[in-house]
Fold this sequence. Notes:
Helix content of chain A: over 70%
Low-confidence stretches of chain B: none
Oligomer: heterodimer
Radius of gyration of chain B: 19 Å
Helix content of chain B: over 70%
Number of strands of chain B: 0
Low-confidence stretches of chain A: none
Structural class of chain A: mainly alpha
Strand content of chain B: under 5%
Order of helices and strands of chain B: HHHHH
Number of helices of chain B: 5
Largest interface: A-B, 46 and 46 residues
Mean pLDDT of chain B: 93
Order of helices and strands of chain A: HHHHH
Largest sheet of chain A: none
Radius of gyration of chain A: 19 Å
Distance between the termini of chain B: 19 Å
Distance between the termini of chain A: 20 Å
Strand content of chain A: under 5%
Structural class of chain B: mainly alpha
Shape of chain B: elongated
Amino acid sequence: MTGIDPYSYASFGVAMSIGLSTIGAAWGILLTGSSLLGAAVKAPRISSKNLISIIFCEAVAIYGVIMSIILINKFSAGSPDSGTQAQRMFSGFSLFWAGLTVGLSNLFCGVCVGIVGSACALADAQKAELFVKILIVEIFGSALGLFGVIVGIIQSTDGRMP
Amino acid sequence: MLSVLFESDCSEAAPFFGFMGVTAALVFANLGAAYGTAKSGVGIASMGVMNADAVMKNIIPVIMAGVLGIYGLIIAVILIQKVKSPYSAFSGYAHLAAGLCCGLSGLGAGLAIGIVGDSGVRANGQQPKLWVPMVLILIFAEAIGLYGLIIGIILSQKNEPC
């Protein structure tokens, strides 16, 4: 564990935060988009309202971008010669796990919002009043990505490279 | 890793396990919450096509799944306050255990809530008398996540100063 360079840990965390968030967002968009387009064949009225589900998925990717910019600023502070090895290792671990927290939370959130968004489009195509009700479920789903960002920010506060 | 096991104080690698506990608490709980939200959300959307008036009452499984994410957030925030720069290996392992307890219990509870919620709301849409039994079963599933939270809180109080 201590044999691996702390900058290696930190940069892997940054990569995971943006990489996994975008995979989650993309997965959600593919789930929602395909259902939306299929359902809109017989009910074209749903296509403009249900774009909000796609936007919820995109927001997950934005969380990943914001977090990775925050992590990059902490990662590129200081220089490899300043501070003790213990401080550098602490920062490395902090950024690594903060990146994984954000990335994995956004991955699961994106898939969840995608599945619910797909169900929302299909239900809306059959009964228009269901759109707002299923949107409430989607809002609960997107809160999970926010939890990840909150914990990621707190986790990385002490993670500034010395 | 073996050298970490035999050091008793102020290990450089101990923050790795502390931060891993924070991440595990949130990420696994989020996975459970995401599964619960998505699975029951699809059930609600399908049921709503036949019985739109029952949708608002049946959002209960989604709320209970969201609460599992809150449990993970609580433990993650508690643990983050304790992972500081001189950090003993004992604390690291205790906090990893706390995070895994809460996270994996939340994952199990989320799986249960998702599947019970899905079949419960579909059944409730056809037979209104089934709402109370569905909520009772969901409460038992939620209690599983609560057990993990309790043990996680107890474990997070275990601290050995460096």
